[in-house]
């Protein structure tokens, strides 16, 4: 069930909101139970058999947590638990990648494991690994199965994040105030509308400049330079508006029930360095990789050389987290390399010299950062290394290309086709990308716009544009929702569902 | 002092909560208003860009390049169960002398649109059109089978009144099909696309499991809300009449349902079906087209059916032979 589906918006969500409100009249605990049931139904609606997997994963990890209350077996049980979670993820996500690798190296004929990747497995597994690791480090063991289940399965974040931390979720479920605030619900509705608009109106309309081009190169075709640039830049915008739109929807939905999720995006394309980019892009994954991989590896505490090795290892594994493929590994490796270069540059310049002393230097830094990110996306989007290489060479006009893959000049506005001609389509595509980039660079991000406050954090600093519960904002949110409802007939999936 | 402050705080909180609740209500009400306005606007655009020849029919029109003199058209029961190659053999015509232009939920108005667009291709041909109850019964409003050309002839207020709120899917399909039909027309699909295989016939290669078959036909969705006095019947019958002047001969076929269904044991079905056949037959007499009512086909068994109304691959030659024998030349 997609957030941007009629079934979710007109059946599931109203039913859950009403059931939650009714249960909440009885007790906060009843409200939480409703959310647990709704979350399990939400997950089961995709493929009921995998609901058993989710329930088993929750039950086993909860039980392991209880076993870890005994200090003498805490480390052993925790280690076994982490290994079990990694094995589960490895089987469903990486089995064929590993077998392919062994086959390539040894030439031995190995079987293909026919498994369907369970939705959100990377997210709910990582969240529970973090829980077990924290308990190993001395965090309090959760004894309430209902709260623990909701922490893992709460439907707004279950499928594609944000990756939540037990310490920021479980205490919220135990507060009596949960779900009683119309103030939070109003803000939640407005944030949801903004997220839905980003996903359905911006990202899904940009997809038409991306999918045909990459499908063509994935099938062994070639691109002209203008189409390569358009496809790559459009994907750069599409993935941002798609994923950040999903995260905004998740935050907005959670607020309808009075629950605060962590912020996942803070205008990443405004970043003027790769270090800054990773503080703004998929923040909850960066936080996880930092706390549960980079720092345990030694972080920057074991000398400069080790720091760069740790950075590369973290980013390579971060790339692999997104998918079992060499392209994701290269994408992660590229970002690891970018980060090393960025840290080396900072070390060379020294802390006393401000990096952005003037506007020109800042513009140059932004341009380099943005282009580096754009080039890396080519590997992320292409299905094969050959396809990625084809796009990269086409970007610089180094390979002959054709454009016979594009529908002959058909523009799709909310999936409604209009014949405009290929030249016009290129121009319209460029205009759409420019507009999307302008939105990403000039408007405040959703947390700033809505003055969002994460759990136990201060509110976002005020921006020049700020949401208020007044008629003008009601009209704007309504327009965003109404327009998005038309776009929803496209039924495209969220890009991050596959991870 | 503490008490006074607390009362004041709780009053302020109540005020803020109430304002937020009002904001939610206003946002949702405005969303509905904006959405309805945008829907009306889109319907108005769809009515302007709509082309009577839908994509599914346009894709089959390249078959007319062979100058067939027997053109099979209509809805899915012709598309999936009349083999033009066999029909050509049986009637002594060359390959391409018989083509199958039928498509899912195909309607007479669409065929008439194609005949008007390419009159030379139809003028000397015998056009055989199959029809189904959903084409005339006003009570059938589902998105999958509502005739798009009928929807296009309703004004925006009529469209919204007829389909909102529960049949909004029909309006959404109509908007999408309108844009798609315009695109097909602008891309000259009817002239430039490659010819479909098998001269336009497709085969259903599976048989529906027993529990999926409807218990009786009288309560089938195609007979729901039985009403033959609306715009559907008026416009589609009018289209059949107009075809008479654009072809050498027009035959309207009423194909059968699967043999497991017995009209004599389903009076509801019998009454409705008689009315619908009479509607078509009366029009045939008035306008000059032939009507072939085929309540059953000799030799056609239950095993030859894929579902309650379509034959499977084994039934195609049986149905084709029978139809051709009834058509004459």
Salient structural properties:
heterodimer; A: 499 residues; 20 helices; 66% helix; B: 329 residues; alpha/beta; disordered N terminus
**DSSP summary, beta strand count of chain A:** 2
**What is the rounded distance between the termini of chain A?**
16 Å
Low-confidence stretches of chain A: none
Q: What structural class do the secondary elements of chain B suggest?
A: alpha/beta
What's the total number of strands of chain B?
5
| Rounded radius of gyration of chain B (Å) | 25 Å
Shape of chain A: globular
Structural class estimated from helices and strands of chain A: mainly alpha
What does this structure look like?
The complex is a heterodimer of chains A (499) and B (329). Chain A is mainly alpha-helical and 499 residues long. Chain A is built from 20 helices and two strands. In chain A, a hairpin with a 2-residue loop joins β1 (410-413) and β2 (416-419). In chain A, α1 runs antiparallel to α2 (28-44) and α11 (225-256) packs across α17. The radius of gyration of chain A is 23 Å and the shape is globular. The relative contact order of chain B is 0.15. Chain B has 329 residues and is an alpha/beta fold. The model of chain B is unreliable at 1-5 (pLDDT under 50). In chain B, α12 links the parallel β4 and β5 (290-293). Classes of the chains: A mainly alpha (499), B alpha/beta (329). At the A-B interface, α9, β2 and α20 of A face α1 and α9 of B.
